[in-house]
Specification:
heterodimer, A: 6-stranded mixed sheet, 0% helix, B: 114 residues, mainly beta, 4-stranded antiparallel sheet
């Protein structure tokens, strides 16, 4: 079965600084990979997804993620963080043939002014 | 922009009681899902529903859980006899199709079992 690890429970950055949130997965074949964001009181919103093709994926709100098969990673990046990016971020993986994502525990992003 | 809605936002119930969590998926979506998130833990898949039947369910979704689409708009999750460990945030989601389609999540219902 697939699994997802988000090693950072909390990340604190200053507004305007760059951001990288880490995600590692465990799955034998090429997985389907997702990043979701959850703002306080809101549901999860899909930021981006990777199924195949270009390993650098562009998403909404200025986010991107890079799939690195050799490292089993799918890290989320943003070059300049805004205060409104403060939220919980979830990485998820789905195995081929299944459309049900397995979620990581989430990383809480705190943005200092 | 269409969105998934869930009611109530917070439900408090006593152990052993039945609860029904309600969701209104996006109107043209065909696939419906329930997830839960116990405080401080991962979001976990419970069940998916398509064409008026369960298409996939997890080990968590045992006999005390059931889902229903009672009319053309609502999608419900029933917990027959709640336990303390059922306390969690429950998310409903819907999508137009299966994997390649984005799942749209509702804001969640926080269930507290006392």
């Amino acid at each position: 079965a697939q699994s997802v690890t988000q090693p950072d429970i909390h990340i604190t950055v200053s507004e305007g600084a760059s951001l990288e949130l880490r995600c590692n997965y465990s799955y034998g074949a090429t997985p389907y990979l997702f990043w979701y964001v959850q703002s306080p009181g809101q549901g999860l919103q899909l930021l981006l997804k990777y199924f195949s093709g270009d390993t650098l994926v562009q998403g909404i709100k200025g986010f991107e993620a890079e799939f690195k098969r050799s490292q089993s990673s799918f890290n989320l990046r943003k070059p300049s963080v805004h205060w409104s990016d403060a939220a919980e971020y979830f990485c998820a993986v789905a195995a081929g043939g299944s459309y049900i994502p397995t979620f990581g525990r989430g990383t809480s992003l705190i943005v200092h002014p | 922009e269409p969105e998934v809605t869930q009611t109530p936002s917070h439900q408090v119930t006593q152990m052993g009681q039945e609860v029904i969590l309600r969701c209104v998926p996006i109107s043209n979506h065909l696939y419906f899902y329930w997830y839960r998130q116990i405080l401080g833990q991962k979001v976990e898949f419970l069940v998916s529903f398509y064409n008026n039947e369960i298409s996939e369910k997890s080990e968590i979704f045992d006999d005390q859980f059931s889902v229903e689409r009672p009319d053309g708009s609502n999608f419900t999750l029933k917990i027959r006899s709640t336990k303390l460990e059922d306390s969690a945030m429950y998310f409903c989601a819907s999508s137009e199709g299966s994997l390649s389609y984005e799942q749209y999540f509702g804001p969640g219902t926080r269930l507290t079992v006392t």
